[in-house]
Amino acid sequence: MREYLTEQHKQRISEAHKGMSIRPEVRAKISQTMTGRILSDQTKLKMSEARKGRTLTAEHRRKISEAMKRYRKNKAVGR
User: Fold this and answer.
1) Residues near 13 by Cβ (< 8 Å), separated by ≥ 6?
2) Which residues have CB under 8 Å from 47's CB, separation 6+?
3) Rounded to two decimals, what is the model's pTM?
4) Which of 2, 32, 46, 51 lies deepest, with the highest CB count within 10 Å?
5) What three-state secondary structure class fits 59?
6) In angstroms, rounded to a whole number, what is the distance separating the alpha carbons of residues 25 and 30?
7) Which positions ≥6 away from 30 have C-beta within 8 Å?
8) Which of 27, 67, 14, 44 lies closest to 75 in space, CA to CA?
9) What is the pLDDT along the chain (79 residues), one digit of tens a residue?
10) CA–CA separation, 24 and 22 (whole Å)
């Protein structure tokens, strides 16, 4: 049988982890492990549903736009 954490316990865990950061070498290792991972259609659908309804700031939309322009430019050059 699975035991669930109480709200108080969850709060204590949350407070204990605040301000902690992952070392760059650990972050790189996690990134390398996750790269190329194949996700099921069901997982993709769940991820999509979780993101729906969120709004991005104007600055964030601008940064995404600039990144996509650079990507398309570099992709056209690489052909």
Assistant:
1) 5
2) 39
3) 0.46
4) 46
5) helix
6) 9
7) 22
8) 67
9) 568 899 999 999 999 999 999 999 999 999 999 999 999 999 999 999 999 999 999 999 999 999 999 999 988 776 5
10) 6
